[in-house]
Records
---
Amino acid sequence: MVFAKTLTGWYLKNRRELPWRESSDPYRIWLSEIMLQQTRIAQGLPYYLKFINAFPTVFDLARASEENVLKLWQGLGYYSRARNLHFTAKHVAFELNGKFPNTYKELLKLKGVGDYTASAIASICYNENVAVVDGNVYRVLARFFDIDTPINSSQGIKEFKGLAEELLDKEDPGTYNQAIMEFGALQCTPQLPKCESCPLSHACLALKNNKVHQLPVKLKKAKVVKRYFNYLVYRSNENTTIIEQRVGKGIWEGLYQFPLIETPRLLTTGELIAHAEFKSLIDIKRTPVSLYNETPVVHKLSHQHIYTRFWIIEKVGKHPNHIPVAKIQDYPVPVLIANFLKEFDFGD
């Protein structure tokens, strides 16, 4: 109980003023928690404000097109979160009459809502006694109690969840849950923890045993896969280009891109022109081709690194999928294409 009260006291003095903390509306808490999964607050906050402005209620979000949702989400990454967000908004709005479930167990049934998000909403909005466990909580508990069980192992997940439940302030679980997460984010940080000003330092076992920077322990990730993307950027003399929508269950599902040829390695211009897929798309006798960036843009995702080069295809004729260059900004695209569009000049 002393542990919980100490954290809550620290939180009330040091917490950041964030818009979702001014509300107990489950829609706003849910939206913020989904957006902040694997995302820093500094990055997620502008997106949260954009979404609340565009979709002030769950009904507004439910009525939006998926394309509009993805466009507003553009650049935040992990786009399955946006698709799940939209799916769940429609479920809550049209099947639950706009009312979010009010228990942890029922919240878990919502698409895209896992243990952490359900615990956060249930405790903050409904005062239910369920503990949150995110990266910040893992770090605080691992250090304070000197626990070296890997946090991403099945044993570690169970162990830390159980410990978090034991420490939970049953009188005010919502405030306590926010306190321990904020403490990990601001005080017990990954690289430069502020141990000298920590209100828990007198009892922190990692500090006592000189293991602060060794904890928490995490099992090594799977090997990173390298992928090589060749985007074909059509630039016609009528100021049009070609984009297509990504389909399937891979990365960036539902986003738009230039026609893509994926290869097992970087290609020379000659190798690209000789590629069967390239030949099926382009009449090379009539179409000049040039490489825009010799050095590939490396886009790093959790389990894959994408090496991307853009090939400029000049002055092609009419094509069924042509769109005016000015319209391309209306489509949701992966951030690496958004960055390309900021610097590339399609001409008049």
---
Amino acid sequence: MALALPAGAKDPDAIDNLKLPGISTYAPPHAATQLARGEGEITLSAQLTDKGEEITRGLIWRVFLPEPGADGKLPLVASAQGGTAAFQLQPGSYLVHASYGRAGATKRITVGRDAKRESMVLDAGGLKLDATLAGGIRIPREKLRFSIYEARSGKDDEKALIIPNVQPNSVVRLNAGVYNVVSTYGSVNAVIRSDIRVEAGKLTEATVEHRAAEITLKLVRDAGGEALADTSWSVLNESGDSIKEAVGAFAPMVLAEGNYTVIAKNRDRIYQKDLTVEAGKNGEVEVVASEATAIDPAEGAD
């Protein structure tokens, strides 16, 4: 039986000392052909579920000796990429790891002189993520990113990051289970967290709704006037904490729905304006010097 090993988990059947390279240090791609000459042939295949069809592409196979080497790591003796793979190995015991995207499983195998076949069940599925604004308004994909975390918190009450910067509508392969997904729109505070369950053999599609808006701040002398260059910006939340700073005649940003205070500094003058952001209402926000609250620089505002 294949043993699925999600991040942070251990194999209960004595694979505690398994030290596999990181997800980015797999062996270079090879054709699914014989990679190590020996006297025993073994053919390896994998399925997403116990009764599922064999995976025909996208697999990475790695075969290790079961005992750590002098460096404390398991020696890699063969690898392949694709679907079903055949290996020629010396008779003996090995640990086989199959990865499919971020899903993976490990199994102990025994190679003899007679050809044999082993099958591994990955217990994995796919996750496809997207986000919209209220009313189903699409969000530009270049301003939207997802991060996938373990659902359970660690010792420091923090969730372990599994995959950062996932693009919308891309399929991520994961072991079955519950994951904490963080959707970030823009780069300030439009963030949504959701727990999403991935089921083995299925593609889970999840869309979250952001309540936010894209706004562009500009300082003008009079309503409808030209934006003043060399303006420094600071946006404060309701608690008075600065959450965004910028410099320029225009300050574009994405803000979550809510109330804010905008502070604009131009030359020796500082202006302040209260701002309410409504979900989906994008546009320019003018800070009119003649209408905004002027602040004496001596008061320490910045």
